[in-house]
Amino acid sequence: MPAICRRCRSKPAEVRLPYARMSLCPDCFRRYFEDRIRRTVEEFKMFKSQDTVGVAVSGGKDSAALLHGLRQAFPGLKLVALHVDLGIKKYSEHCLEKVRALTRGLEVELHVFDLKRELGFSIDDFRLTPYRRKICAPCGTIKRHLFDELAREAGVKVLATGHNLDDVVGTMLTTFLAGDWSQLVRLKPVLPPLSPLQTRKVKPLLRSPEWEDLLYAAYSDLPFRDIGCPHAGGTRVRRNQELLEALSRRNPAFRHQTLNNFLRLIPILEKHVDQPPLTTCRRCGYPSSAEVCAYCRRVELVKNTLEKRRQRSKLNPLLRGINRDQANDI
Fold it and tell me: Is residue 317 very low, low, confident or very high in pLDDT (cuts 50, 70, 90)?
């Protein structure tokens, strides 16, 4: 005989949450997911009811679940969706299509930054630079900066991102093992802006396991991408997932317990860990640990690489013509 939903006591349970020792039907699971978003926002005072909240939407399941979950948890909240079109062949087109469908269905205003049109290059172009197969590093730097720019243009002071429980705990463990204490502090649920050009970053899915984001998006019939990024090597992500799975095998609540302990540790880290001194990037004006920030350096790198490639393409026909003339003279 199938288990009965623990909440409504009337429908068959389809979702088993081992860490909570609870089985739920699809409708009750969706409400449970939305209630958790509401509690998380309220617990960490992520935003106020009168705020306009920007939501970084990528086209994936996490940001789709986040936008829909916020809409259900806070019906009166003004939401604005922000998307960066990275210009990755086929993949970015697919993502933008899903984002447009999602925001249309939820009647949420959408702002898009087209990397190729606005800056003259795409993330694909980093294959020509020394990054080659490690494109995730410059991609992350560029996205973080552009989401701040999009938020400022949209008049948004709070930016919600789709970082879930697995993301935070996985990155936390990796950062802890690397001994990068200053970066650990930046994983907290609410990250205040370092300058007026930046937004307040919040993580409403902080307590939501990744597989539950997928389940919520599927049960809510949300459009989200079904192909992976061609540049995602996934080595570190896969390693983090394998580590979390191994540690959670005997203790289903491992992720939640680790997060709770980490949250208790943050105030101590903030008192005793010195953050690197920051200055202002002389090019874009954003906070930076160097005279020119990482974003501007990466933009300069890819643009210089493309310009050199264009110059070579112009020279090649001339050189071929010179070589033919020399051959004729001989």
Answer: low
The answer to whether residue 312 sits within a structural domain is: no
- The verdict on residue 10 lying in a domain is no
Q: What is the pLDDT of residue 182?
A: 85
Assess if residue 73 is contained within a domain. yes
Query: What is the CATH number for 105?
Result: 3.40.50.620
Structural domain tally of the chain? Answer: 1
| Cα→Cα distances 200→85, 174, 191, Å | 22, 24, 6
Query: Which structural domain range is residue 180 located in?
Result: 33-274
The answer to whether position 112 is within a domain reads yes
pLDDT tens sequence across 112-153: 999 999 999 999 999 999 998 889 999 999 999 999 999 999
Tokens 């105030």, residue? 267
Question: 208, 36 in Cβ contact below 8 A?
Answer: yes
For the stretch 42-79, pLDDT in tens is 999 999 999 999 999 999 999 999 999 999 999 999 99
